[in-house]
C-alpha cells in the first residue's frame, strides 16, 4: 500500500513492537518497506519483536475482606482468586510514584497467571522524520512460552509467527517474494509482548501516575514509565484496567521520537489455542532469508 512505501524496515514487536524509524541492518535482505514495523535483526542491533501480544490476567488480586476496620486496602496475597475491586489499590488515585509502583506490582502478579492470550489489536505509528502516520490492525494469539501469532487484517495477509523454534515474518503487502526467519534461541524471551515492559518493571522504570482514562469503555489508570538504563524507548506509557489489572494500551516513544501506540481489545485469557494456529509454511515462489 502506498502509505507504507517510504518507511524503512523496522523492528516492532509488538507485538509483537520494537523500535521504529531505524534503518534495517546492512546484512538484511532488501525486501522493501515494512508496513507493520516488524523486522528482525541479529546481534547487538537486533530489536525486540513483540512476541506474545499479551500478558495479564487470569485472576486479579482480591479486594480486602468485608468488615475490615482497616481504612486502607491491604496488599493482596499472591495468586489472588477474584477480580480486584476498582478501588484497589486504595491510594492509587493520589497519583504518587509509590502508587504507580503498587499498580505495576499488581500488573506483574496478574501477568504471571497468563498462559494463553487472544486479542484484537490496533496499532498507530507516527514517524516525524518521515512526516508519516500509519495504522494497522489484526488479531494476536499467544501461548507461553514460545508460541505467538500476529495476523494482520490491515494490511491484509501480513503475518508474524513464532512456532516454538523460529520466528517467521511475511509481509506480502510489501514484498510477496520474501520471508524472514530467525531462531527462537536468538530472541525467544521476546516472544512475549508485554514482558518487554512489565517484567521487573519497578526495577527497570521510574513510574509515575497520570490519572485515569477510559480505554475501550473500561476505566483504566494511566502510567508513564521512564527507563532507568539503556533502552530503545525514551518513555513508555501504559493504561492498566482498574478491574482486572490487565494492560489494555501501550504507547512507546522511541529514540527517533517516533510514537507507536498499540491497543488490545476483546481479550480472552487461558483459553485453549491449537498448535495448528502457530504453524507457517512459506508460500510457493517466496525466498526465505535467515537472520
Can you tell me about this structure?
This protein is mainly beta and 291 residues long. The chain has a single domain, classed as Clam (outer membrane lipoprotein receptor (LolB), chain A). A twelve-stranded mixed sheet has the order 7-8-9-10-11-1-2-3-4-5-6-12. Helix content is 10%, strand content 36%.
Keywords:
mainly beta; 4 helices; disordered N terminus; 12 strands; about 290 residues; outer membrane lipoprotein receptor (LolB), chain A; single chain; globular
List the helices and strands and how they pair.
Layout: H1 97-112, E1 116-127, E2 132-143, E3 147-154, E4 156-163, E5 166-170, E6 178-183, H2 184-187, H3 195-198, H4 201-204, E7 205-215, E8 218-227, E9 233-241, E10 247-254, E11 259-269, E12 287-290
Parallel strand pairs: 6-12
Antiparallel strand pairs: 1-2, 1-11, 2-3, 3-4, 4-5, 5-6, 7-8, 8-9, 9-10, 10-11
Short description:
The protein is mainly beta.
Query: Helical segment tally?
Result: 4
Query: What is the CATH superfamily label?
Result: Lipoprotein localisation LolA/LolB/LppX
Number of E-type strands = 12
What would the average pLDDT be, to the nearest integer? 74
Amino acid at each position: 500500500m502506498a502509505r507504507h512505501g517510504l518507511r524503512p524496515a523496522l523492528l516492532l514487536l509488538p507485538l509483537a513492537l520494537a523500535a521504529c524509524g531505524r534503518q534495517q541492518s546492512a546484512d538484511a535482505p532488501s525486501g522493501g518497506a515494512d508496513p507493520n514495523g516488524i523486522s528482525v535483526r541479529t546481534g547487538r542491533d537486533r530489536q525486540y519483536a513483540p512476541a506474545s501480544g499479551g500478558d495479564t490476567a487470569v485472576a486479579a488480586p482480591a479486594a480486602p475482606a468485608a468488615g475490615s476496620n482497616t481504612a486502607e486496602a491491604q496488599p493482596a496475597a499472591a495468586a489472588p482468586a477474584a477480580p480486584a475491586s476498582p478501588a484497589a489499590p486504595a491510594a492509587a488515585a493520589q497519583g504518587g510514584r509509590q502508587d504507580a509502583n503498587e499498580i505495576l506490582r499488581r500488573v506483574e502478579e496478574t501477568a504471571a497467571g497468563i498462559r494463553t492470550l487472544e486479542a484484537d489489536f490496533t496499532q498507530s505509528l507516527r514517524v516525524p522524520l518521515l512526516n508519516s502516520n500509519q495504522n494497522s490492525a489484526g488479531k494476536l494469539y499467544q501461548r507461553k512460552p514460545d508460541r505467538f501469532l500476529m495476523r494482520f487484517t490491515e494490511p491484509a495477509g501480513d503475518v508474524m509467527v513464532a512456532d516454538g523454534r523460529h520466528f517467521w515474518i511475511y509481509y506480502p503487502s510489501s514484498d510477496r517474494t520474501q520471508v524472514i526467519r530467525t531462531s527462537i534461541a536468538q530472541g525467544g524471551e521476546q516472544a512475549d509482548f508485554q514482558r518487554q515492559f512489565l517484567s521487573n518493571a519497578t526495577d527497570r522504570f521510574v513510574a509515575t501516575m497520570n490519572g485515569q482514562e477510559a480505554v475501550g469503555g473500561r476505566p483504566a489508570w494511566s502510567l508513564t514509565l521512564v527507563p532507568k538504563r539503556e533502552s530503545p524507548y525514551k518513555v513508555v506509557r501504559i493504561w492498566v484496567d482498574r478491574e482486572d489489572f490487565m494492560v489494555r494500551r501501550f504507547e512507546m516513544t522511541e529514540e527517533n521520537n517516533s510514537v507507536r501506540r498499540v491497543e488490545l481489545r476483546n481479550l480472552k485469557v487461558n483459553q485453549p489455542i491449537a498448535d495448528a494456529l502457530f504453524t507457517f509454511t512459506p508460500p510457493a515462489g517466496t525466498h526465505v532469508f535467515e537472520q
